[in-house]
Amino acid sequence: MINPGDHWQTIQHDGPVARLKYRIRLKCDENYYGSKCNKQCRPRDDYFGHYRCEQSGNRVCLEGWMGEDCQTAICKQGCNLLHGDCSVPGECKCNYGWQGQFCDECVPYPGCVHGTCVIPWQCSCERNWGGLLCDKDLNYCGRHQPCVNGGTCMNTEPDEYRCACPDGYSGKTCEIAEHACVSDPCANSGTCHEVPSGFECHCPPGWEGPTCANDMDECASSPCAQGGTCIDLENGFECVCPPQWGGKTCQIGKTP
């Protein structure tokens, strides 16, 4: 039997007085394969398929295609095929309501501010947020700390709060001082003066700060001359002078 192919086959016939020897080759017509040239395979790369033909006549899909007729595109690696598909290789087109590189992220409800979703069009609020769009602050006190002057904040409704003010203060945020000096807030004999925002302390020498509670560093101005060492004292300072100098700030030279 002579099989189709590119190689030549030698045939020999022996007779009583002669020998006949010849070579023969059988080739199938283009796009036909098999031992009887009855298997057809026509390569194509169009809407009806994307494949080439093997020597045996079997179809082999081109890169990026699969299926019996090589008509199904292979989507981008990682593409969630439950929520996306592709019409050309390497693509990942998301279905309605899904987004992201791999179509694995749901689209939240339009206008959702502080919320997430598990399925499309949800708006599940994060902690301390409420409302249809998760835009209502349920912890206004913790997030904004609106109460001043020692007031205690209490959340009442979304985006609402109430301040419990200490004695001597009133207003929405306890910003109004009422007889603020009654509690004698100024330390170290400071003098209290009421002002619209509360009180001010006029501090005696050697003290500073909002309530005169901070000991002023008199050595900060380097008062000791001639290399003397300054020691800060309460409401004053002392200079330790070199042997040849004296006085409060080491400015007086000693006679030998």
From TrEMBL:
One of its GO terms (cellular component) is membrane. Keywords: Calcium, Developmental protein, Disulfide bond, EGF-like domain, Glycoprotein, Membrane, Repeat, Signal, Transmembrane, Transmembrane helix. Disulfide bonds join C28-C37, C41-C53, C61-C70, C165-C174, C203-C212, C241-C250. It holds the Pfam family EGF. Residues 137-175, 177-213, 215-251 form the EGF-like domain. Residues 26-70 form the DSL domain. The keyword Membrane applies. It is found in: Membrane. The keyword Manganese does not apply. SMART domains: DSL, EGF, EGF_CA. GO terms for molecular function: calcium ion binding; Notch binding. It comes from the Eukaryota. It is a single-pass type I membrane protein. InterPro entries: DSL, EGF, EGF-like_Ca-bd_dom, EGF-like_CS, EGF-type_Asp/Asn_hydroxyl_site, EGF_Ca-bd_CS, Growth_fac_rcpt_cys_sf. One of its GO terms (biological process) is gland development. Putative Notch ligand involved in the mediation of Notch signaling. This is Delta-like protein. The lineage of its organism: Eukaryota, Metazoa, Chordata, Craniata, Vertebrata.
